[in-house]
Amino acid sequence: MHKHSLLKSQKLAVLLMLALLMAIMPFGNQSVAIAQGPQSDGMVCTSGPNFNLTSHTGYVGTPDGNVVYMWGLSSGADPFQYPGPVLCVTEGDTVTVILHNTLNRDISLIFPGQENVLADGQPDGPVFSAGNLVSLAKAAPANGGSVTYSFVASRPGTFLYQSGTDPAIQVPMGLFGAIVVRPAMGPSFMYNRADTAFDPNREYISLLSEIDPILSQRMESGLPFNSRNYHPRYWMINGRGFPDTIAPNHASWLPGQPYGSLTLLEPWEATLNPLPAAIRYLSVGSIDYPFHPHGNNVRIVGRDGMPLEGAALENLAYDKYSIPVGPGQTWDSLFSWHDPEAYNSTANPVPVTFPNIFDMFFGPMFSGSPYLGEQGTIPVGTTSQNQCGEFYHIAHNHALYQITSWGVVMTGMATYTRIDPAGGCP
What we know:
With 426 residues, the protein is mainly beta. The chain is 6% helix and 30% strand. It has 3 helices and 24 strands. The model is unreliable at 1-38 (pLDDT under 50).
């Protein structure tokens, strides 16, 4: 691990953040954060119900210029990635996961929320040696061992999979991922309820995690680590820290961190855009993360793979300003953006006087206009990465020290919601 010198000035840190934003975003008429192609944004599914997961060692980049040794799970013969792939199945599927272990220690997988899990055809469960608990599940032996897990995906929702062997070490090192079980009602519903419908082209996931670089250094060096000394310095969404979080899926400069977390929306409209987006929140961290997407509350429709409904199946979903995603928890939410004032520069202008253009600070995502879908004049020499007058609202962890990277401000567990004008960018 190579630790670069930290910025000591908050002003310099902010300037660095802006420089990074401009460095990762293409110029011209391209979108600032979305590459071309159907999987440039949104949740990337690895479809089942049969999966092969292989453990690897590798490195992840962090926004402060560090490179950190990690472990990860990849699909089949794919190279190292962090976190593991999102496994997508359908309610009622018999799911099979074959774990191939290339690490120099035993590893295993547990599947919280799944029932009657089998390991190599036998009921799985804790493993003891001489009366001591050594694993929460049957392990794949080190240096080439394997084990086959199977279970029936009996209920829809969002779930985790993670190591059950030495989890205080192996989970923070990267042996984890997400499982999405589609309901029998169809893939455009979160649960078997009509009121959980969402736009299937607007499905997102935010898998929250943390990294202790000293733990990573000890594992890379083959040295023991006392978990009492665990101290995370990096906080990630889908394995990335801001501003990499808003880069597209499979960005070429992040080969081991394939998943972005930008949320892309258009204004809600009863006829043209009536369905919300789906955002799935999960955490493998050690404490609660109070995560909040600015611009609107989310509608919580499920927790830990259980729909929010009463005994008579009444709808108990509720709006939430900040989502305190705790260790091992999952939250299923619906999210939409409304434009109630419908301001525009001609028929309905904003009823305030704008400041002089030279008195304003322009971030790289500002269009130069306060109106959705319009681009205004910006000072000569100012670079704008805005494509068509879209808006950007930050979404971040409200524990503000966790939107840093080893002290570098405005990095860490943060991303954006992008709101395009109705119909999208031309």
